[in-house]
Write the C-alpha cells for this entry.
Amino acid sequence: MRKPKDKDFIETSEGLIFCVVGYLHPPDAYTAYLKYRPGKEGKWKRSGVRYKRMIQLYSAAKIQTGSSWLRKHYPEYISLCNVRGIELPLVPRKHVTRYYNPEARLPEVLDRPRDSLEVKTARLVNHLSESSGVETSKFGVTGSILLGTHHPRFSDINITVLGDSNAQGILESCDSIYEKEIEPFSAKEIEIWQKERAHLLGIPDHYKDQILWPHWLRGRINDTPFHLHPTRTDEEITSEYGEEYFTALEPIELTATIIDDSESLFAPVKFGIDDIEIIKGPQKPPLITRIISFEGIFVGCASNGDRVQVHGILEEVKDKEGQLLRHQVVIGTFSTKGWIIAL
C-alpha cells in the first residue's frame, strides 16, 4: 500500500478537506491542515457544493488560524501529539471518506483534460518531462485540480514530482524549462513576493533581499501560475512515528555552514550544518547538527558550502528509550516565526 505523502489530500464525512503534511503520521491518523470547508461564500465548487478556502498562504501562522476554527467547530480533529509535544491537526483515519492521490489523478488530466486549466496542466507536465527526461508517471497534480474544485479563471497549477533523483533532474534542466508559453516570474513580482513573505515570516526588512528564490519551483504557463512540489517515494520515507521524540527548548539565532543538502528538496526541509556561531540563544549551546524547516519557501534554498543565518527554535531529539540523539533548529512551528537567509 502506498504511504501517505506531503501534498496528498483527504476528505472527512463532514466534507472537510485537509492537505497532508510531511511524512510523520500516527498509525491511526493523518497529520494534515484544513484547506477547504463547505461554505456558501466559497469560490471553489464541485458537484453543486461550494467550498471556502481556509488558508490563502501556507505558513505555520496561517495553519494555526485554521486550527483555531477546527478547535471551535470540530475539536476531535485537534490532538496532542506526544511525539512532537504540541497540539496540532490530526485527522483520525476512521473519519476519512476519500483519499486523493496526486499520481493517480494526473493520468486523467493527461488523457482527457476537461477544461482549459487541465489542458495547460497537461502541456506543462509534458514539457517538464521532455525537458528533464523524467517520465510523466513520476509526476502528480495536487491542489484544487486534484480535488476537482478548480476554476480555469483563477485557479493555479500545483504539480508534484516523485523522488529525489527526479526532482534533481528537473532542477538540472531548469534553464530549458522556461521557453515560449512557460516563463518565470518577473523581477517586480519577485520583489513583491519577497516583501510579503518577509512580513509573514518576521524576517527583518534589511534581510529580505537575501531570501533565496527557488526559481525552478515556480513560474507561469499562459498567465497561469504553477508551483512544483518534490515528494518522497515510499523507499525515501525512512522515519517512523514514535522512533524519535521532539522537545522545544528556546528561541535561537545563529550562523552556520551547510554541509549536507541531501534532503533539502522535500518538505520538511533538512540541512546538516557545522561551523556554528550563536547570535542569540543559550550561552552554552549544545552541539547542533541540523536545521529543519516546515516552511516550504526554504525548499532547495541552500547548497553545501553556503553560509546561512537561521532564526528558529532550539529542539532536542530523543529516541523512544529517552536517549539524546541530537539538537536541531526548527523553523515554521506554531511557537515562533523562523527563517533562513543567505550570507
In short: Residues 111 and 300 are 32 Å apart (CA to CA).
